[in-house]
């Protein structure tokens, strides 16, 4: 399934405040998921296998590393649990990085929110305005993302331009 996201990632110094704001807006809390994302070496974009209890998927996405709301073209495949898939991907492409995190997952309509605690990196909040049907358009998604950034009082200096995998790799260098 292919879709368009407009998304941000930011440092989150007050996760409880974000939780309270989401709760006050009757966000649909999906749960807390321990997720291990294995990123594979690819020529273009990013390919990761997400292993979690709530979310399990093979995800390809192409997104620029820029601050602020950014466009992400996503292809999502949700296989059943099959450890051989990870073995095939690892043997054929090689592992680039592994990201281990605890993720709280919330939804308000088409907007998905994550409060993440990433091993070795700290606390983050993500906002993903999602157009899975191709009917909303990029402008509307950008407006939604900006509105929630204002609500959460996300400052420009808190925005993260790259993926968790890039951050993990930068720690190693």
Describe the structure in your own words:
Residues 3-170 form the CYTH domain. It holds the Pfam family CYTH. This is Adenylate cyclase. The protein is α+β, with helices and mostly antiparallel strands. It has a single domain (2-172), classed as Hypothetical Protein Pfu-838710-001 (Beta Barrel). The protein is 25% helix and 45% strand. The chain has 4 helices and 9 strands; from the N terminus they run βαββββαβββαβα. Strands 1-5-4-3-2-6-7-8 form an 8-stranded antiparallel beta barrel, surrounded by 4 helices. Strand 7 and strand 8 form a beta hairpin. The radius of gyration is 16 Å and the shape is globular. The relative contact order is 0.26.
Summarize this structure as a short list of keywords or feature phrases.
single chain; 173 residues; alpha+beta; Hypothetical Protein Pfu-838710-001; eight-stranded antiparallel barrel; 4 helices; Adenylyl_cyclase_CyaB; CYTH_domain
CATH class: Mainly Beta
- Which runs of at least 5 residues are low in confidence (pLDDT < 50)? none
Form type: globular
CATH architectural designation: Beta Barrel
Number of domains: 1
Q: Strand arrangement, largest sheet?
A: 1-5-4-3-2-6-7-8
Order of helices and strands: EHEEEEHEEEHEH
Content of β-strand: over 45%
Quaternary organisation of the protein chains? single chain
Through-space gap between termini: 35 Å
Radius of gyration: 16 Å
Main β sheet profile: 8 strands, antiparallel, barrel
CATH superfamily: Hypothetical Protein Pfu-838710-001
- In total, the number of strands is 9
Structural class: alpha+beta
Total number of helices: 4
Mean pLDDT: 94
